[in-house]
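FAQ: What does a ligand-bound record look like?

Like this one, built around calcium ion:
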Amino acid sequence: MFNENDKKTIVDAITKAELNTSGEIRVHIDKKCKIDPIDKAIEVFEKLGMQNTELRNGVLIYVATSNKKLAIIGDEGINNAVSENFWDDIKDEMISHFKNGDFTAGLSNGIIKSGEQLKKHFPYQSDDVDELSNEISFGDE
Ligand code: CA
Ligand code: CA
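The answer part, i.e. the structure of the complex:
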């Protein structure tokens, strides 16, 4: 589903997005999600230790490719700063790419947009540390 070029495009998008914001963006990809994708995303968020950022500003973009499920969740630092519908436009745009089967474009666009949106609340700091890996996390299901 994702060849080496696709993976590189996605990781590069994360690296680029994190030059706009101190927020830490990660992507997790499953084949199938049998439960509510938000619940699954919360599970993965914890498993990846994403709550271990100084400003509690980790963001997880969760995708299940075979049933085209998507969830974007932020840590409490982000939830306290943004409105509940903060991710809606980004999600809608990503899903329209997914419907065309273009997961890589959907993800990389969504990642870049997330960085731009987060910039207002969590601007990039000159002493930035890459607190969470930019590598994609793959589920084994
Ligand atoms: Ca960082
Ligand atoms: Ca990072």
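Follow-up question: can I read anything off the structure? Yes, for example: The radius of gyration is 14 Å.
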